[in-house]
Specification:
The chain is an alpha/beta fold. 36% of the residues lie in helices and 11% in strands. The chain contains 13 helices and nine strands.
């Protein structure tokens, strides 16, 4: 997960990069940005601090000063990495490293070496010794993104270092002790994965010491205007454009949208709109890729129930259709059968996912 592009909560510009009188949209009229205080809390630099997010940031502030392991859950693009960074920045470890690892980005053998390091000659191609991420994060914070994709065979070694704070590098007999605070994140249902024996139960409970759930953007409509304002100003500045007005109807249509791709979809939509906007007025880009809100169904038919069941399975599998953790396996169907049903029912993945 990247920082800005994958976050529902974005960092506001520093004072030197944004004028203090930049006009913003508020309730249908323009206002001037108030001058920022000399000292600002990291939490106060997060855009979109209304409603449910306010309670989440209170949890972040409460847990940051401890060494408790935190598990952040939520759909792709809801800002899990930003929350992990906030926990680190508000902790006593903020002057040490915040090290990030994407557990879905590499195979099991390479991930083990990346986390714990390896000795020279430990395996074919290991021509030099390698320091792992746990060692780099000593006395700091290690952010394990996409923890649900960590291979089962590697999970016991992670459990050991969480409990005993020690490990051995690949090919080494020397035990290394570390003091690392772990923050993990996933968009998958780990409880269901435990029931399906795809994730270790003991590791789940060890990671879930302090859970934080980030709601999707469609459940945080009060935050959308502030996010739109921020992205409009950010992209306008990067494109050397001046945008002073966001029409009320434009803002209302953006707030009404479901944003299945969360912040990525919103960010890309705003970027396209800024490119097409002229005369200081923000005009949204065509929203062909944006799906309209699904109507509430009081008495669903059998077909509607099937459609809902398939949607839930696809979302839990992060829109992966095949494989042991894919939606087809969860539904007990062949991949080709699931693909046929999705096509017949008009089910398509969000813009930032592909059917694999």
């Amino acid at each position: 997960m990247s920082t800005a592009s994958n976050s529902v909560m974005e960092l506001t510009p520093y004072p030197e990069s944004a004028p203090t009188n930049t006009p913003l949209y508020r309730a249908g009229h323009r206002i001037a940005r108030e001058p920022e205080r000399a000292e600002t809390s990291f939490l106060e630099t997060i855009v979109g601090r209304c409603g449910s997010l306010r309670a989440i940031l209170s949890q972040v502030e409460a847990v940051a000063g401890t060494n408790t392991t935190v598990l952040i859950t939520g759909e792709t693009g809801t800002g899990k990495e930003v929350i992990a960074r906030a926990i680190h920045e508000l902790s006593s470890r903020r002057n040490r490293n915040l090290v990030k690892v994407n557990c879905a980005a590499m195979p099991a053998g390479l991930l083990e070496s990346e986390l714990f390091g390896h000795e020279r000659g430990a395996f074919t191609g290991a021509v030099n010794s390698h320091v792992g991420r746990f060692a780099l994060a000593d006395r700091g914070t290690l952010f394990l993104d996409e923890i649900g994709d960590m291979p089962l065979e590697l999970q016991p070694k992670l459990l050991r270092v969480l409990q005993e704070r020690e490990f051995e590098a690949v090919g080494s007999t020397r035990t290394t002790r570390v003091d690392v605070r772990v923050v993990a994140a996933t968009n998958q249902d780990l409880q269901q994965m435990v029931r399906d024996r795809e994730f270790r139960e003991d590791l789940y409970y060890r990671l879930n010491a302090f859970p934080i759930y980030l709601p999707p953007l469609r459940e945080r409509k009060a935050d959308i205007p502030e996010l739109v304002e921020y992205f409009v100003q950010q992209f306008a500045a990067s494109m050397d454009k001046s945008i002073e007005t966001i029409p009320q109807e434009t803002m209302r249509s953006l707030v009404r949208h479901r944003w299945p791709g969360n912040i990525r979809e919103l960010q890309n939509c705003i970027a396209r709109g800024v490119i097409l906007s002229n005369d200081g007025v923000f005009e949204p880009a065509p929203l062909e890729s944006c799906q309209p809100p699904e109507p509430e169904i009081s008495n669903p038919t059998l077909e509607e129930k099937v459609r809902r069941e398939i949607l839930v399975a696809c979302q839990r599998a992060n829109w992966k259709l095949g494989g042991p953790r894919g939606a087809a396996a969860r539904l007990g169907l062949k991949r080709t059968t699931l693909f046929y049903k999705m096509k017949r029912l008009g089910i398509a993945p969000p813009p930032d996912h592909s059917q694999d």
